[in-house]
Specification:
single chain; 107 residues; mainly beta; 5-stranded parallel beta sheet; 4-stranded parallel beta sheet; 60% strand; globular
Length: 107
């Protein structure tokens, strides 16, 4: 699956979760936000050799709460990672797999 922008847990009291599992399973996005508004919650779990790629920014707990978990041989890569962006933002990053930062492209 590919997304321009992926937001999970957008509005107040909004909750959502995305699970990406299994070899060959892949999610690509430009920007990813988990727990955007205060009172919201978003979660992503990447397991069993799946791949999650954000070409730009990943924000976990912008003003709400967010969890991102990578394990079981899965990989996650992104340009930048922000945890708990505002004073109400809460973030959890759990990884038993390597997280890779994209190298800057030559312009």
């Amino acid at each position: 699956m590919s997304f321009q922008s992926l937001t999970i847990g957008d509005e107040d009291q909004g909750e959502g979760a995305l699970s990406v599992a299994g070899a060959g399973s892949q999610v690509d996005a430009l920007d990813v936000t988990l727990g955007k508004e205060e009172g919201s919650y978003g979660a992503v779990t990447v397991t069993d050799a799946a791949t999650f790629t954000a070409a730009d920014d990943v924000t976990i707990g912008e003003s709400g709460a967010g969890d991102f978990m990578v394990n079981g041989g899965a990989t996650a890569s992104f340009q930048s990672l922000t945890l708990g962006e505002s004073e109400t933002g809460e973030a959890v990053w759990t990884s038993a797999a390597p997280a890779r930062r994209h190298p800057l492209a030559a312009i």
